[in-house]
Each structure stands twice: as structure tokens, then as C-alpha cells.
Amino acid sequence: MGKDAVKSLQVSNYQLGVDDQELLELRKEIWGEDHLHNNLEYFKWLYQDNPLGQGGGVVLRKNGQMVGFAGLCVKKLSVDGKEVSLAHGLDYMISPRARGGRNAIAVAVEFSKLAKERGFQMGVVYPNLNSLSVLTSKHVQWTPTLEPSLFVKPLLGVKFDESPFSWAPPFILNLGANVISLYSNLREALHSFKKAGEIIEVDSFDERFDRLWGKVCHSENVQTWRDSSYLNWRYTSHPLYSYVRLACVKDGEVVGFVIASKRELLGLDTFLIVDFLILDNSGDVLSSLLQELKSFAVKSGCRIMGVEAVPGSRSGKIATDIFVKTGFLMVPSKINPKGFVMTTKDYTNENSKATHQENWHFTWGDMDT
């Protein structure tokens, strides 16, 4: 890269509110005009309204025009019950007008510098395959930490109007899907569990959820900090998505919850489980919640249910066993439309536990905002 080209490129910190219109145009250029997150209200919610603190990010400009960006959302982790500040990196993107290894690396390096300057102890990013090679390069040195698996539960009457795969016509998919659906429902019918408590819809998360979190956060898991303040911001005030929020209540106390949202998966309306937290990993509590959630999925007109889980983690294996017993099936990684890798960075060298897959309680909502 020549000296003049270098001079035309500038890296600076994202100015909340001030840079939003430029950011909107950059997102449209890279992700398409119709991407749901191309929304100024969403930017404000994500970077300014977060109860944990204002976000930030890094901007790359070429000849004064924004051509690259990496956003920073403020979160917290629980690591062995200890509160750890987390810089969640998202919307890492470089315009075709400035693509090149050096530019992508420069943005990633500056993001890490910003996170360290702001005092964050850990960083997490969920890159696509192109960005993964940059983040894990010797220049940036993020650690590949976990790769979730997608599990789906076909509901009776599932039908593909169009095939998402070039090698499989719709009638073949529909035949296979209905056979799988029958098998899935048979597995569910054979799964016996004891009703764990009363299942209620949640309008807002109150002090009962703080008490649940106070018990769960002291487990051995590494997990996103899920107190009522975070849950209300994340799942009751989102400007773009609506959520079904169910909790299991026993003797007046919340012993678990599950949260789902209607999305599109494999060309089908899907009831996607985005978050769940269960006291003592109780199979009866999770099964009770999943049974009730299925009725909401059917009422919403969805044709399948879906959930991301990490079978390779202690917490994930327990949850995965319950998902399978209640009729969920793992999608082969080669055809998983929601495949990604979580990468982490330990800025203080004191939280290495958070860089290993087996320690995580992970849900879709940790990644998708």
C-alpha cells in the first residue's frame, strides 16, 4: 500500500449518535437495503440505552467517508460467580471500497485497543468465516472458543414451499420432514417428566429473576450476566424483535425461564429459542417450559422450533439431552444456516476459563442482538 493510500485512511472512535447516519449507509452497502438492523432506533437502543453503559466502536474512513466499522456493546460475564466486564464486538465490516488484509486488521486491532483503554476484562466477537481468519491471525490473536450446534423440532404439517438446497426438490424435503416430524413427536411422547411448577408469561423481569440469577451465577459456568436489568433491556425493550417470555414458578420463586422469537430458518417460519436459564439444570423445569412453548409456536403459525446449544460444554450437554428427548434433532454442520464460531480475548490474562468451550452456558441471545 502506497503512502498516499495510507494517508487517505483514518481510524477513529465511533461517535454515538453523530456517526449513525453514515453507519446506516455502510450497513446498507454491505448487508443490503432490507436488512432488519438498518435502523437508527436500533443503533440507539444498542449503543446508548444499554443499562450497563454506553457502547462505542471503531470507524475506518477513506477520504473522509466511512468504509469500515466495529461496534462495541457493553455486557458482563459471570466467571465462577465473579463479575467480569465484557466488550461484545459486533457489526465488524469493511466496505468493498477498502477491503484488504491491512484495513481489516487495523480495525480489529483498534477495537482491542479501545476495549483495553475502557478497562474491559474480556472481549467476545462472533465473526463470519471471512472475519474469523482476520481475528485469529497473528496480528490480532483472538481465540476460537466455541462453535454451537443447531437443533430443530419439526412441527406436524411442516411444508417447504421452496427448497433451500439446490440438490433437494421441495417434495423430497417435505416427505423427509414429515417422517422426521412423526419421529420427533414420538420421541416427545415417550419422554416422561414431572411438571415442575406453574408456567407463566412474563411481562417484565422482577426481583424474582434477580434471586434466580443470584443462585445460578455461582455455578461453575461462564455465562452472560442475566439479572433483571439486563433481561428487561434485552427482551422487553428491543425496537425490532418481539419475544415470548415464559417462566416456571415453584413455591412463589422463579426456577427457570425460556425466551423465544419468531424468525426465518431454512425458508420456514421458525420459533427460535434465544435464551434460557434453569436452576440446578433441572430437566423437569426445562421440559415443562418446552412443552408450554410448543403451544405458542403452533399458535404463531411456525413450522419448526429451533435452538442453538453447545454439546461440548457441561451445561450444554445437559440441555442438549433434554432437547433431544423432547423431539429436537441436531442439524448437520454442513447445512446449518446459522453456523458461526465464538472468539474471545482475555485482556487481563485472569479469565482463561472463559476461553474454553466446556465452561460455557451459551444461548443464541448471547450472540444475536
What does this structure look like?
By secondary structure, the chain is α+β, with helices and mostly antiparallel strands. Helix content is 33%, strand content 28%. The protein is built from 11 helices and 15 strands. Strands 1, 2, 3, 4, 5, 6, 9 and 15 form an 8-stranded mixed β-sheet that branches. It has a 7-stranded mixed β-sheet with strand order 8-10-11-12-13-7-14. A hairpin with a 2-residue loop joins strand 2 and strand 3 (65-79). The chain is globular and about 65 Å long. The two termini are 36 Å apart. Residues 1-5 have low confidence and may be disordered.
Q: Give the proportion of residues in helices.
A: 25-40%
Tally of DSSP helical segments: 11
**Class inferred from helices and paired strands:** alpha+beta
- Indicate the overall shape: globular
Rg, please? Answer: 21 Å
Q: What's the pLDDT, averaged over the residues?
A: 91
Largest sheet data: 8 strands, mixed
Helix-strand string: HEHHEEEHEHEEHEHEHEEEHEHEEH
In total, the number of strands is 15
Poorly predicted sequence stretches spanning 5 or more consecutive residues: 1-5
CA-to-CA gap between the ends?
A: 36 Å
How much of the sequence lies in strands comes to: 25-35%
